[in-house]
Each structure stands twice: as C-alpha cells, then as structure tokens.
Amino acid sequence: MARVVLILADGFEEVEAMAVVDVLRRAEIEVLIAGLHQGPVTSARKVKVIPDTVVDSIRVEDFDMLVLPGGQPGSDHLNADRRVRDLIRDFHDKGKLIGAICAAPYVLADAGILDGRRVTSYPSYRDKLGAALYEEKTVVEDGNILTSRGPGTALCFGLAIVRRMIGKQKAEQIREAMLAPQVCE
C-alpha cells in the first residue's frame, strides 16, 4: 500500500489539507498526518486537527510521498522548522514524491529543491520561488515534485497525486464519484 505523510503547522489551510487527505484515502493510500508538536494543530480558520504523529517520528524510508498544505501562517511555520527542511531534502535525495500547494511551494524553494523545476503556487508567492520556472496551471508535475495553486485546486491536486501513485483509472473513478470537474483530468 502506498504511504503518504502530510505535515500540518498552526495556520494551515484546511481545504488544502483535508481535500488531499480525503482523495488519497478514497484511493486507499495510507495517509499519516504529522504535526510539528504534540497535540492539536489549529488551522487558519481555527479548525483543530489532531495529528496521527509528530514530525520527529517520520522516517523517510516508511513513506512514498511528503505533502505540504499551504495557508498562512502555516507555510511560514513549516519553512521556519529545520526538521521540515531536512525531511524535504531527504525525500528529494531519495527520489521520493513531494507535493506542495498554495504558499507551501516556497518552503520547497527555500529547501533548495526547486531550481530549474517547473512549478506553480498561489499567485502572490510566485516571486518567492527562486530559480523555479513558474506556470499558471492548476497542477504542475516536474520529476518527483507536484505543486498546485490553492484551496480551489486542492481536489485536482489530490487527484493528480492518485494518478501518479496509483494510476489514471483510479483517479478517474474517484473524480467521477466525487463529481469533480473535468478540469481535474
């Protein structure tokens, strides 16, 4: 079974996190939610989520993909945490999949893994992506990195991850069952 770890920090964007978790679990991908610390993590709009684990317990070899939802100040908290930066680099060095949506692609840029890569993000974060090659698309895949634009693209982002990890047929089944727009294809 494919395994994904999604890291939450206080101030995360709830649609970006929960839509992705929902879509991946519908595809029978195991998703572990990790917090930066013990206890509940509070979203940008004060929704509390109890993570399954803490970031300190993540072992790269146990997962196929790392996903970072955006939101503010959640993305800033992820970016300020050395453990997150180290995990990003470890996942990247091992050729594992890495996904980031909305503001979170700038965390990947600051970790030094986006130079020369095609990416997208929330429009106001375009200038924070260093030497990445910005595209105004719903989801951009370049090698092992998948990025997406924001809350409104979260469902498409989750489906792109399913397509990449499980296959096009499963992604299409889920898209149809969820009545997701054709644009997610």
Report on the architecture of this protein.
It is a single chain. This protein is of the alpha/beta class. The protein has a single domain, classed as 3-Layer(aba) Sandwich (Rossmann fold), CATH 3.40.50.880. 32% of the residues lie in helices and 21% in strands. The chain contains six helices and eleven strands. The chain has helices spanning 14-26, 74-80, 82-93, 105-110, 154-165, 168-177; strands at 3-8, 30-35, 41-42, 48-49, 53-54, 65-68, 97-101, 118-119, 133-134, 139-142, 145-148. The strands form three sheets. It has a seven-stranded mixed sheet with strand order 5-2-1-6-7-11-10, sandwiched between helices. Strand 3 (41-42) and strand 4 (48-49) form a beta hairpin. Helix 1 (14-26) packs parallel to helix 5 and helix 5 runs antiparallel to helix 6 (168-177). The mean pLDDT is 97.
What's the alpha carbon Rg, rounded to whole Å?
A: 15 Å
The top level CATH class name: Alpha Beta
Principal-axis shape = globular
* Fourth-tier CATH superfamily name: Class I glutamine amidotransferase (GATase) domain
Helical fraction equals 25-40%
Structural class: alpha/beta
Query: H/E order of the elements?
Result: EHEEEEEHHEHEEEEHH
Largest β sheet strand count, sense and barrel closure: 7 strands, mixed
How far is the N terminus from the C terminus?
23 Å
Q: Give the number of DSSP strands.
A: 11
Q: Which consecutive residue ranges, at least 5 long each, have pLDDT under 50?
A: none
Examine the secondary-structure arrangement and name the CATH architecture: 3-Layer(aba) Sandwich
The overall average pLDDT, rounded, is: 97
What's the structural domain tally?
A: 1
Note the beta-strand portion: 15-25%
The CATH topology assignment is: Rossmann fold
What is the strand arrangement across the widest sheet? 5-2-1-6-7-11-10
* Count of helical regions: 6
